Amino acid sequence: MAINFTPHEVKLNLKNKTKLKAFLKESFAREGQGLKSLQYVFCSDEYLLEINQQFLQHDTLTDIVTFELGTDPKVTEGEIYISVDRVKENAFKFQVSEEQELHRVIFHGALHLCGYKDKGKVHAATMRNKENEYLSLYFGDK
């Protein structure tokens, strides 16, 4: 069960990678989802826009794109692309630290791979509650 964090042409200060990997593994188990492999790619707005256009036919900036690559719905083999530019801008917009916003998006991608959706008010509210739950579990009452 491998989890990797790869910056693609961006600088990234991701602290406590070993702790984060262990927490993500526990999170998948908590959600009842197997985990075979998970690749996080941290990139620029431009790079993620190309991915969004090419694979999803969306011509918009986004903070995250998630792909399930496996064939077994009970075991995740995924790739998650995160725009560091969007994370920084959203941290400023929502008045949270870049570290907290980065982790929110990291957990958001994992939750998608566990079957959570975020389209529509009810799904979006459920996703936000789960993100907050995992942020609280990971950071404590910071």
From TrEMBL:
Principal location listed in the UniProt entry: cytoplasm
The keyword rRNA processing appears for this protein: yes
One MF annotation (Gene Ontology) recorded for this entry: RNA endonuclease activity
Keywords per UniProt: Cytoplasm, Endonuclease, Hydrolase, Metal-binding, Nuclease, Ribosome biogenesis, rRNA processing, Zinc
GO biological process: rRNA processing
GO cellular component, one term: cytoplasm
Compartments, as annotated in UniProt: Cytoplasm
Details of cofactor binding: Binds 1 zinc ion.
Transmembrane helix found in the keyword field: no
EC number(s) per entry: 3.1.-.-
Cofactor: Zn(2+)
Enzyme class: hydrolase
Residues annotated to bind Zn(2+): H108, H112, D118
Family: Belongs to the endoribonuclease YbeY family.
Role of this protein: Single strand-specific metallo-endoribonuclease involved in late-stage 70S ribosome quality control and in maturation of the 3' terminus of the 16S rRNA.
PANTHER family: ENDORIBONUCLEASE YBEY, CHLOROPLASTIC
Full protein name: Endoribonuclease YbeY
